[in-house]
Give the backbone structure.
Amino acid sequence: MEFGFGDGDEGFRQEARAWLAEHLDGRFAGALGRGGPGSEHEGGAARRAWERELGEGGWIGLGWDADGYGNRTATLTRQVVWAEEYARARAPGRYGHIGENLLAPTLLAYGTEEQRRRYLPPIARGEELWCQGYSEPGAGSDLASLRTSAVRDADGRWRVTGQKVWTSLAHEADRCFVLARTEAGSRRHHGLSFLLVPMDQPGRIDVRPIRQLTGTSEFNEVFFDGAVAEDLVGTEGGGWQVAMGLLGFERGVSTLAQQIGFAEELREVTRAAVASGAADDPVTAERLVRLWAELRTMRWHALRTLGGDPREAAAAGAPSVAKLLWGGWHQRLGELALRVRGAAAAVGPADWSPDAPYELDAQQRLFLFSRADTIYGGSDEIQRTIIAERVLGLPRERTGRG
Ligand SMILES: Cc1cc2nc3c(=O)[nH]c(=O)nc-3n(C[C@H](O)[C@H](O)[C@H](O)COP(=O)(O)OP(=O)(O)OC[C@H]3O[C@@H](n4cnc5c(N)ncnc54)[C@H](O)[C@@H]3O)c2cc1C
């Protein structure tokens, strides 16, 4: 199947564009361009209100393959249109994306109808925010070595105990999906369950922000001490399958929107290079052109992948290829941004103090936060291992972990 926009898509684009223009005015004007990776600490209350505004407009849940949960559905091309217009309008970074793009498709694939009725409508209304409780100290790339456990109490409820780390937006989230060991003595990916845990459990859940070099914070350590889980998705002990299914939803139409943001960043760096004369340096000019060409390649890769059968694309390693392409690309752009700025890039704001959080400028933020792009969502090394083993059929990695 070829990916292409159809007749009705242009009208949909106009509708999306007009809605965004109207609603990003007034009380949300200050939230324009705020949030997103490296800026998740920005615009808290306004971005939360913005989620509800999106919900009222019916713009959450377009990609769910069923409606009736308070969402409106849209064809794949229209989802792309919405994502593109959203990025073009510089609308606020989404607080709700973990619930909408990760948990919701997982519930549609693995949840019961009762669970869908319970959790999807508040996500569609922009009322409930979720966070992802997978990684632990000692269990990142090697997620199967996780140690957080859950046991049933006298009332039959699951009680979660353990520590998660790097939990993005846990300080804002209402609920967390937690991968925990529910079968005592089980090993690796056996005996795990996918649990849904409300965050408002004082004394049983402790969210501690991880302070970054800038003094700001967007992810956290989360400590569970007998926290109550209100649901289990999939089968007891079958959480690995659900957790891996969820990771398969991590990217999709959002890739194309992300590329619009990337193109804008590349334009910014190019403008700065021309203005400062840095573009006269043939090495810098060559790198700018190379980044432009690579961005085009990424777009075609994404369009080709989106147009086809997702299972075939996954079997051909397409998600890993996409992750390798964009993660490395974004890092190289960050490096070039600093090269273009020269020594001034290393200087902090005039009012810098070691005691107060401070803002990076756009280029500094691009450089620093793109370092994480080759780590989260599965590091580059792990993506290469996936391609090596599952696509090329190379011998399996010896982990020594049994
Ligand atoms: C910005 C950001 C947001 C995040 N948000 C969340 C979140 O919301 N929820 C959540 O659960 N997690 C989150 N994470 C955590 C993320 O999933 C982990 O950082 C990632 O899985 C890597 O795990 P680790 O940090 O423990 O590194 P490690 O697994 O310790 O890896 C360290 C290095 O060793 C390499 N390595 C590890 N194993 C192998 C191997 N077998 N072969 C070759 N190289 C290897 C890795 O590639 C990496 O370079 C986030 C991370 C970042 C950076």
